[in-house]
Amino acid sequence: MLTIFWYVILVFGITSSVVWIIENNGTIIINWLGYEIQSDILTASLIFIFFFVFIAFLSYVLTRILAIKFPQLLKLLFKKSYTAKLEKIIANHHRGFDTLTKILLALEVDDYESAKSIHKNFKHQIKYKSINDFFFAKFALENSNYDSSQKFFAEFKNNPHGKILLLKSQLKIAIKNHQDSKAIELGQEILSLKKNSIGTARELVKLYKKNGHWQLAKNLIKDFGTENFSDELQNRDFTILNTSLAQEAFKSKKYFQAIKYSKIALGLDDQFMPANEILIKSWLKLGLNFKAVSIIKNLWKETPNLILVEIFNIIYKKNLPKNRLKAVKKLVKLNSNAYYSNYAIGLVAFRSGLYKVAKEHFTTALDLEKSQNLYRLIANCEKFLGNKEEFYKNITIAKMLPKTSNYICTNCQKTYSRWQASCDSCASFDSIQ
Fold first, then answer.
1. Mean of the pLDDT values across residues 165-173?
2. What CATH number does residue 226 fall under?
3. Quick one: which of 10, 115, 303, 346 has the fewest CB in 10 Å?
4. Which pTM was predicted?
5. Three-state SS letters, the chain
């Protein structure tokens, strides 16, 4: 309050003096070193003020230099209050640097709570915007407040390291908003700027896995090493990864590559049917039918599956119906499962045109387990045998039952004739069985 009072008096005095000079402006004679100068009062006053301000500014600059470089000399030469103030500022900055060291040490051991607590003192000691904004961004990033961290890091976008931090915030926002394509682009840009960013690589692997970019995932895993993705990828994920690569290779008619990836997948899970299916079909495409038959027989002993029967039927499709039926009967003897045995014999008989035999075995299988496919197959047998009434009867029943196929999504129940890593309908990963 007293300070304001003195300021009011000072302003009043200056204003009164200026008004008096303007109203009573006259001439004065200045004698200096034997020289005599005649001027009006206003001009002389302005010259005096200019030199006073210049000398005051020069003394301020010199005092700042002395305060930093020669504090003891400054203390000896000057005893005024502003000297003490400068000493206080410098001492405060020294404490600030000590506090900054404590913050950096806390961050080094990931103790963000302590770092935030220490920073409260630091921002009062050193009021430097860039440093404080960096810490605000760092704390926001740790608290998953990515919008805030993006705003602060945007101030450092012209710095190469600042740009990486900005991109990381944008990556987190894109992932949060389920913008997978944008997130992948941002992740790839980060890795182009900082090739050893393992955190970004892990985020990218998750995105690649979710969106079925298996070749990109495999390349990334190869670059960083499998051991760095133990939390993101389990054995099951590697099985699916290699099966997907095998599937892509098979579609591209790269059968040796398909065999290679299938074997890697089966090394992790030897009963994984999609990998076995691709392996068998790849051997067939290469003309090595005996390899395919051997794999089918070994699998049938453990886990009979209708996919195996379909492939087995393709292998023997050029044989006589009698020989095809004989071959499949030998196959089903390897496993005592009555449902699959009758289904398999019925299916081969149906494909061979032996509709009466097929109907008998389908009916036996139907007694064990009812399915839409079985009713449709029996209906078609009746149709080819000329029993229209039975055909319509079985077709009607089939339509009332849920659709069946080689593979089905356990999440949304969508059916697939061929396996894939993620469902097109519900986007769930590893749900197609």
1. 85
2. 1.25.40.10
3. 10
4. 0.61
5. CHHHHHHHHHHHHHHHHHHHHHHCCCEEEEEECCEEEEEEHHHHHHHHHHHHHHHHHHHHHHHHHHHHHCHHHHHHHCCCHHHHHHHHHHHHHHHHHHHHHHHHHHHHCCCHHHHHHHHHHHHHHCCCHHHHHHHHHHHHHHCCCHHHHHHHHHHHCCCHHHHHHHHHHHHHHHHHCCCHHHHHHHHHHHHHHCCCCHHHHHHHHHHHHHHCCHHHHHHHHHHHCHHHHCCCCCHHHHHHHHHHHHHHHHHCCCHHHHHHHHHHHHHHCCCCHHHHHHHHHHHHHCCCHHHHHHHHHHHHHHCCCHHHHHHHHHHCCCCCHHHHHHHHHHHHCCCCCHHHHHHHHHHHHHHCCCHHHHHHHHHHHHHHCCCHHHHHHHHHHHHHCCCHHHHHHHHHHHHHCCCCCCEEECCCCCEECCCCCECCCCCCECCEC
